[in-house]
C-alpha cells in the first residue's frame, strides 16, 4: 500500500513537472511568435516608410510616396530671360534644365550649375539663388534631378544616383560653354541632398568642377534618418537601420555606404559651405566635422537664426556677399 501510494505520488509529480514544462514551452512559443510578428511588422513599416521617402506620386493621384515636386514658378516670374534645355540621359530618360544667361552676356564670369534638395525642384528652390548669381554676372544652369520637376522618372535616391545626374549636367555645361565660346569657371551649387550629390559626383564620377558651394549639407544618410526619426519622437534603433536597409534594397544601392564625409575627402577644389546656425538636421559640430576633412581650400559661412531653409531667403545680403567673395577668388585663379 505504501509502495502504491509512493509510486502514485511519483507519477503525479512527474505529470505535474511535464505539464509545467509543456505550459512553459507553449509560453516560450507564444513569446517567439510574438517576437517574429513584431519584427515582421517593424520591417513592413520600415519598408513602407523608405518607399514613401524615395518615391513621388504625380499631382492629383493617390499612392504611397511624396507629392512629385513641380516647377510652379518660372525664371520669367523673377524677371529673368531663360531657355529650357533637355539633357539626355538615355533613350527613355532626361534631365530638364533652365539656362539663364548672365546679366552681361558678353562677359560672363562663369557658369554656375544649381541642384535642388530632396523634395525640391529648380522652380521651387533654385530661382532665388539664380537671381542673385545672374546679378553678379554669372550664367546659371538650373537642373531638375530625375524624378522631379520637368525631368523623367518618379524616384529619388537621396543623392546616390543623383551624382550621375550631376556628372551629365557638367558635361552638358562644358559643351554649352564651347558653343557660346566662353572660357570661364564651372562651379557647382547644391542644396541639402544636392550638395551630397555634388560630393559623390566629384568623389566617384570623376567630375572636375573649378569650385563647389554646399548649402545645408548632411554628413551621413544613416545619421540624417536618425535625426529625423528622433525629431518625430520615434526610437531611432533599429528603425533608422531598417529604413536605410530597405531604401537601399528598393533603389539598388548600399545606403549605409552613402557617406558625404567620406566623399569630401576626395574633393580638392575650393569649397564654400553655407549653413544655418539653428539647423535641426545638422549641428554645427557635424558641419565642423565635415569641413575638417576637405583637403583643399574651404570656407564656411554661418547664417545666424537660420534653420534648414533656403538661406538666400533668410539673409540675401550675407548670401550674396559670401558667394561673390568666394567666386571672385576662384575667378582670379582661373
UniProtKB/TrEMBL annotation:
Q: Which residues cross the membrane?
A: 30-51
Show where the AB hydrolase-1 domain sits: 129-313
A Pfam family recorded for this sequence: Abhydrolase_6
UniProt keywords, alphabetically:
Hydrolase, Membrane, Transmembrane, Transmembrane helix
Any single GO molecular-function term of the entry would be: hydrolase activity
Cite the PANTHER family for this sequence: ALPHA/BETA HYDROLASE DOMAIN-CONTAINING PROTEIN
Q: What is this protein called?
A: Alpha/beta fold hydrolase
Specify the species: Zarconia navalis LEGE 11467
Lineage here is: Bacteria, Bacillati, Cyanobacteriota, Cyanophyceae, Oscillatoriophycideae
Amino acid at each position: 500500500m505504501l509502495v502504491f501510494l509512493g509510486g502514485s505520488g511519483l507519477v503525479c509529480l512527474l505529470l505535474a513537472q511535464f505539464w509545467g514544462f509543456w505550459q512553459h514551452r507553449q509560453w516560450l512559443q507564444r513569446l517567439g511568435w510574438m517576437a517574429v510578428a513584431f519584427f515582421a511588422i517593424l520591417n513592413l513599416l520600415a519598408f513602407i516608410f523608405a518607399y514613401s521617402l524615395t518615391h513621388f506620386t504625380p499631382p492629383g493621384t493617390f499612392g504611397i510616396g511624396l507629392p512629385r515636386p513641380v516647377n510652379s514658378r518660372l525664371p520669367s516670374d523673377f524677371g529673368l530671360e531663360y531657355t529650357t534645355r533637355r539633357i539626355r540621359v538615355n533613350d527613355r530618360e532626361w534631365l530638364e534644365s533652365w539656362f539663364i544667361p548672365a546679366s552681361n552676356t558678353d562677359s560672363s564670369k562663369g557658369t554656375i550649375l544649381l541642384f535642388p534638395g530632396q523634395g525640391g525642384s529648380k522652380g521651387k528652390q533654385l530661382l532665388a539663388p539664380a537671381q542673385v548669381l545672374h546679378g553678379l554676372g554669372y550664367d546659371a544652369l538650373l537642373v531638375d534631378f530625375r524624378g522631379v520637376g520637368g525631368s523623367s522618372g518618379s524616384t529619388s535616391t537621396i543623392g546616390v544616383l543623383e551624382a550621375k545626374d550631376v556628372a551629365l549636367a557638367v558635361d552638358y555645361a562644358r559643351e554649352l560653354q564651347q558653343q557660346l565660346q566662353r572660357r570661364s569657371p564651372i562651379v557647382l551649387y547644391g542644396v541639402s541632398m544636392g550638395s551630397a550629390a555634388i560630393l559623390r559626383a566629384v568623389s566617384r564620377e570623376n567630375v572636375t568642377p573649378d569650385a563647389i558651394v554646399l548649402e545645408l549639407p548632411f554628413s551621413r544618410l544613416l545619421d540624417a534618418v536618425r535625426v529625423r526619426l528622433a525629431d518625430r519622437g520615434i526610437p531611432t534603433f533599429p528603425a533608422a537601420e531598417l529604413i536605410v536597409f530597405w531604401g537601399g534594397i528598393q533603389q539598388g544601392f548600399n545606403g549605409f555606404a552613402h557617406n558625404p564625409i567620406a566623399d569630401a575627402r576626395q574633393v580638392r577644389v575650393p569649397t564654400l559651405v553655407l549653413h544655418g546656425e539653428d539647423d535641426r538636421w545638422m549641428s554645427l559640430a557635424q558641419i565642423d566635422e565635415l569641413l575638417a576633412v576637405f583637403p583643399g581650400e574651404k570656407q564656411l559661412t554661418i547664417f545666424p537664426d537660420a534653420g534648414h531653409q533656403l538661406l538666400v531667403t533668410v539673409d540675401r545680403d550675407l548670401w550674396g556677399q559670401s558667394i561673390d567673395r568666394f567666386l571672385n577668388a576662384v575667378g582670379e585663379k582661373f
